[in-house]
Amino acid sequence: MAVRITGLGLISAIGLTVAENLYSLENGKSGIAPVKYLDSERDFLVGEVKCSNAELSDHLGIKAQPISRTSLLGLTAAREAWGNNRYTNELRTGIISATSVGGMDTTEQFYQDYLDKNDPDYAVLRCHDSGNTTERIAAELGISGYINTLSTACSSGANAIMLGARLIEQGKLDRVLVGGTDALTNFTINGFRSLMIYDDRWCRPFDESRTGLNLGEGAAFLLLENDKSIRFSGNSTICCLSGWANAADAYHQTASSPEGTGATMAIQNAIDVSGLSALDISYVNAHGTGTKNNDLSESTAMINVFGDNIPDFSSTKPFTGHTLAAAGAIEAVFSVLAIQKGLIFPNLNYKTPIAETGLVPIMELQKDQPVLAVLSNSFGFGGNNSSLVFSVHR
Amino acid sequence: MYINAASTISHQPTFQNAGFSKLIEPLENSSELISPNYKEYIDAGLLRRMSKILRMSVAAAKDCLKQAEIEQPGAIIVGTGLGCLQDTEKFLNTFLSVEGLLPPTSFIQSTHNTIAGQISLSIGNHGYNMTHTQNTLSFEHALIDTSLLLSEGRDNIVAGAADEHIPFLEEAAEKLNLPSKNNLTSGASFFVLSKEKSDRSLARLKDVRTIGLVQDIDTEIDSFLSDNFLNVSEVDLILYSDLSPRVESVANKYFNEHYHADSKMINYTKLSGLYPTNSAFAMHYGIDRIQQHPELKKVLVLNGLNKINLGLTLIESLET
Questions:
Q1: Any idea where the Ketosynthase family 3 (KS3) domain is (chain A) (predicted)?
Q2: Which residue among A241, A324, B127, B208 is least enclosed by CB atoms within 10 Å?
Q3: Domain A3-233, CATH 3.90.550.10 — does that match?
Q4: Could you give the 3-state DSSP secondary structure of residue B70?
Q5: pLDDT in tens, A65-87
Q6: What is the average per-residue pLDDT within A213-232?
Q7: Which residues does chain A have within 8 Å of residue B276's beta carbon, measured at their own beta carbons?
Q8: Would you call B108 and A100 a contact, using CB atoms and an 8 Å cutoff?
Q9: Fold category of A241-391 in CATH
């Protein structure tokens, strides 16, 4: 399998564009800092996009309100990925976005006012549902027809990319914008705190001392095209999405199985679909949230699949924070950049290997690497596990 | 693809009640969800913590597997418009009003993927697991995903949709000036979809399409029917949602040119009540009608519940 990737868009705590994100990755600049833009009671460490909603709206030229921050972030990244492509009736164009919070950023403000009987603005509820965030992005870009939203917690973004690839492979669409977006909310911060997996210090993926994640926010989109679409657009191919798989862990509502059952299946099946062998994988962009449970389960899954030949791997969440439904899409763009620029990104904040597995991630930026194939993992709660394989275009 | 099992929990006597389409009448204002004895389907310990949408979905999905005599489906695909509202509201209330340590259960169960996740957990299924949430088209998107998977070689897929009512919805609808003629209700419908016809097959799902941000409704209906080599006069029954005025005028005009008997068009929202994925109820209703009336060959579900979205689903009897 091989679906061409021809456009990228990205906004996260480390930059408002793909180029800004790349600069931060190359220079080891994390975007995680005490909360500034979200109206929050405490100084949690978060990966916020360094823009207010007013600045985002202004930048996008959005007048119609209300609009959720989730839609604003998504639209910023989707516009960048869409670039100067033109709409045409000749091509079947679709959009698939992923979100876990939808318009919760506006709903939770409404609900506080509602509980306080402080003149709540019911109008914002129109942007609560997850599907609305995508409809809003589609409307601004002028896309109609196949418009869809997936919500599978932390694997949502990867699933959106996979579904887009499958629709192209089966000839249902000629091109499709795929990605994910999630805004930071008090709902999710409090949720992960209630699960006792929110770290008040910097998250430390794959480190023995890790105690949890830092949440982030952002969005990323990729443009996938078939040959017919390329003939029309003339776009050059950056690289290919060549493998994908989704498997259920069916172990626990939130925890991953210690044997990494679902994760192992997702990784192995994605590599199988790509037609590559495990030895062909140059780099793994890990899910690596920094929770005790995920990183152990994911390490075990990597050992299950790669044995003694573990490829270079790292988690980039110490740069961006865990961006939930956007994570799989943001990390897909990072994986594409790794191939395009010959880079392997460092796993910040790492010191000591996990006792049970002993795996050591990449700690310093590696330049001028022959990165031919990258595996990107996204493992969500609810037992949703997805893996993607990106490879050079031949 | 073939529909080999169907199960619905709703405000109507739909559950384990083949032939219900002959019995049911439009809902009264006072209607309530008709719940089966969930303990027959769900472990008592788990059941205690489950919200309405989870109970309905797990029970309906398990009932489908039983009907189809399948232990492990090839995949579990769920559509939901608004997701787990009861737990979402509960966690909003908790974290906005409680200081200190919060109980995590309502947060865990607030995410949309809890529905498909709980089905996979309850049967120990490791297959493809997906949740679509595209407003009023969530169910149709789940069906499209199912058809892709069947082409990719998976089989016996559990696909369905669910949405749950919470009292806050009436309040929100009133404040947003969306007074509905219909009751706001809950419902869950699940199906087993398979590649091959079997002794248990109920009907064939011929085609399904979604058009988001739809511009020209009758052109879309035309092209859907012509892609299926059908004239509109060959459709024996049209199940339509409670259409928005814009969609209704177009649809009425369109279909009145071909139909003169009102009985060929049935407003399913009057039967199911209003929830974002009630087109899944319509599909089960259509299947049940086909079982009861052998002369029905082709049934079209026309989902225009939301004026910006159009869903089209074509069901055929096995004799077609």
A1: 1-392
A2: B127
A3: no
A4: coil
A5: 899 999 999 999 999 999 999 88
A6: 97
A7: 129
A8: no
A9: Peroxisomal Thiolase; Chain A, domain 1 (3.40.47)
